[in-house]
Design a protein that fits this description.
Structural class: mainly alpha
Radius of gyration: 21 Å
Strand content: under 5%
Number of strands: 0
Shape: globular
Number of domains: 2
Order of helices and strands: HHHHHHHHHHHHHHHHHHHHH
Number of helices: 21
Length: about 450
């Protein structure tokens, strides 16, 4: 069953991407370049996966082993904090990796990275055919995407693919029930993989493109209903039910690098108490809901706006959260804040304490992560002013580069000043005010 699930997904991704590009109204040269970019992108991601693994890849092995032995992941490990569907994919990918012994100890990571690299190709094909050619190529060649999929091998892109497809079905507005219901089902599927889009149905309830309130409520009910139904096989098992509540719905990140946390009263810049966690999470959800109501009344691309707001207002960030704004950047390509975000994101990935490069720049890492939020928020507001889903940016390249550089440098300077002021008001020394073991 697990192998069938993986192979079906591979066929849909690879075959769907090939069909979309083949049928697209593009010159043959452009189609060839897209195929070449896809091949290079996949190769680079697989190479990165062969060089490094992290804690999450180890968690994947634990989860896959439990599933293959018929055990509940929710009752037997704390290392799985998502809806159940990804655990089934992990089991199927584990079975495939067992056929690849020559690849050594990284065989499982290589299998996951190759699978997710094909998901990126499917996303790029949708961007190319539904938005613009440059957007798809940008997404394939973006170094942030390559590092995140290859090294970290997080599955955000698989959930984003289902959510993005759901949005494209209704994007033009005035959708009939024959489009609305499949779209809601795809959005429920997205949340059953990873609950990135958990508030997107709420956003759509305020979007007039869905039509009547009856249709909007039915859409949200269908999406959330499918997400909830994905847990039913484990709901009757008390230990699994307790694990779902504790490790999925009550799970919170341990590290709170964010703009929200910067302005909080905590003496720690990286850890928060349970009370602070609850407060910051409620603020985040409140900001997201308000942003959704405002964005739904504009004419911009709602899915891209949602991804930007998710990260810009998030109370907790990690390296792999950057996958969300990358897709938004491709949707809104080539707006000038994109380049500011990419610059900060690359500094994040090169200076991450737990990343593949392991450079001793924890203070720079902190500032860069917050600068990514500033850039994502700036892109959100820039797009709100444009109020068009796709519109060529006619600004000269030099002007765009100047704006992006100014935003990046200004955000670093302002954030550093805020850090200094906060540390000074709390009476903290320069050696203890950012991260444990700070060498920055």
């Amino acid at each position: 069953m697990y192998l069938t699930l993986v192979f079906c997904c591979l066929v849909i991704n690879a075959g769907g991407a090939a069909c979309l590009i083949a049928q697209a109204n593009l010159e043959r040269r452009r189609k060839t370049l897209f195929a070449l970019a896809a091949l290079v992108s996949i190769t680079l991601k697989v190479i990165l996966a062969s060089r490094w693994s992290d804690y999450d890849v180890g968690s994947y092995e634990v989860v896959a082993s439990l599933v293959l032995h018929g055990k509940s992941v929710y009752a037997n490990t704390e290392r799985y904090n998502y809806a159940p569907l990804w655990s089934l994919f992990l089991a199927g990918l584990k079975q495939i990796s067992a056929w690849l012994p020559p690849l050594g100890r990284h065989a499982y990571h290589l299998t996951i990275a190759a699978f997710l690299a094909l998901v990126d190709v499917a996303l790029a094909a949708l961007l190319t055919t539904r938005y613009q050619y440059d957007a798809g190529v940008f997404f394939l060649c973006c170094p942030v995407t390559i590092i995140l999929t290859g090294s970290y091998s997080q599955f955000d892109n698989l959930a984003l693919l289902a959510g993005f497809a759901a949005w494209l079905l209704i994007r033009e507005g005035g959708a009939t029930w024959t489009r609305t219901l499949p779209s809601a089902a795809l959005l429920g599927l997205s949340m059953a993989i990873k609950h990135i889009c958990f508030l997107f149905p709420f956003w759509l309830m305020f979007w007039s493109g869905l039509g009547s309130w009856r249709k909007r409520i039915a859409y949200a009910a269908c999406a959330y209903g499918l997400f909830g139904a994905s847990f039913l096989p484990w709901a009757m098992h008390a230990p699994s039910r307790a694990g779902i509540i504790q490790h999925v719905f009550l799970y919170r990140s341990r590290f709170y690098f964010s703009l929200l946390h910067l302005v909080a009263g905590s003496r720690h810049f990286w850890l928060v108490s349970s009370a602070e966690t609850r407060i910051l999470t409620l603020i985040w959800m409140g900001v997201l809901m308000i942003s959704g109501i405002v964005a739904a009344r504009a004419k911009s691309d709602l899915f891209g706006m949602y991804l930007l707001a998710m990260v810009a207002a998030s109370p907790a960030l990690n390296d792999y959260y950057l996958a969300l704004p990358v897709l938004a950047c491709a949707i809104f390509y080539p707006r000038w804040p994109i380049w500011s975000f990419l610059a900060a994101a690359m500094v994040v990935l090169f200076s991450s304490p737990g990343g593949i490069f392991v450079l001793p720049f924890s203070r720079i890492y902190y500032l860069s992560m917050l600068s990514c939020q500033v850039a994502a928020g700036t892109l959100f507001f820039v797009q709100m002013r444009r109020r068009l889903p796709v519109e060529a940016d006619t600004s000269p390249a030099a002007e765009s580069a100047t704006k992006a550089l100014t935003l990046a440098a200004g955000s670093y300077a302002l954030l550093f000043l805020l850090l200094v002021i906060k540390a000074w008001t709390l009476g903290m020394t320069a050696k203890t005010w950012i991260l444990p073991g700070d060498n920055g």
